[in-house]
Amino acid sequence: MSYREALTxxxxxxxxxxxxxxxxxxxxxxxxxxxxxxxxVLPLExxxxxxxxxxxxxxxxxxxxxxxxxxxxxxxxxxxLLAPQASGVGLRAHLxxxxxxxxxxxxxLAADAxxxxxxxxxxxxxxxxxxxxxxxxxxxxxxxxxxWTLRVGGAP
Length: 156
Hints:
- There is one protein chain.
- By secondary structure, the protein is of the alpha+beta class.
- Helix content is 17%, strand content 31%.
């Protein structure tokens, strides 16, 4: 299976409480309030404004061994943008909805950890809540940092 197939499968997830789902080929130029909450599939890491830990993902790491299974480890981000961070609205107003959507996302992950068979191993996901900036606008949200192992080169 290809990286694109795995990304496309992730974009097809319907998560309760999320209005729009965007894959790498359908990302809008700008998001409007009517499109929120939205989940965006990004083959990269987008930083939160105030991350407590500055841990970085590995991006694309080949883990093939001569004569053995040929696999690649990739770390895409499934970014949940819940609502704009408005100056008059505190973060606490968004927390109950954020927690509810995270629970729905984790339930979906539990039901489809192999992304429809596109992965060689079940997805691992790190959940990072925060304020994310996209195209100059700040949003309350959550980054689901996936770590995937894909088969490469026609390996079984």
